[in-house]
Amino acid sequence: MKINRHGRAKILTQSEIQLVFAQGFESERDRTLFGVCLFTAARIREACTLLTEDIYTPKGQVRPRLIIRKSNTKGKLATRSIPVIEDLRQLLTNYYPIRGDVYLFPGRSNGHLAEDSAARILREACKQVGIIGVSTHSFRRTALTQMSNAGIPLRVIQEISGHRNLEELQKYLEVSDSQVLGAAATLAMLSPVGENVGKYGLDDISTLPKVATAND
To answer: What is the DSSP letter of 22?
Structure first.
């Protein structure tokens, strides 16, 4: 967990996401900004620098795919085109900027919202609802971990995340205690203890009957 900007960004639960979006963020802009981060796994800089014309048609309709331009990505590797799911479409529809700004999330002097400003908005929202350990990277980590947990192949996830290679992508993914337990539980079919198969949880591992080995 990230404390005072140290450590890894927290993976958000569904209830925490609902809480911060419903009671933490105070404007449609803030909900849309972090909705983009969540539903596209975008880095905060990539979200802050989105162009309005890459999101909406000239008639103000949300485009079917969100464009993250190569020039705004980390390492300037490649332009990414990400499908806009219905949840994100609704946020973008409600937010639609009417001032004709070049940037989707405008800041001062005709520029885009600064990353530091976005981080401050998030800190204040999380403080409001009592969630700790969150950073702007939490939404990206949460999105990528959710896709991995849903069984989406890493190569497909990489197309969305924009990572240079699968090794870099895997560093983002979090493994939960329940997943470790589930993996260990698959070994039950090998157990020689008969009626005890499948009865043990993570906290009971130390109490399992010991099987003698050649080294004992």
So the answer is: I
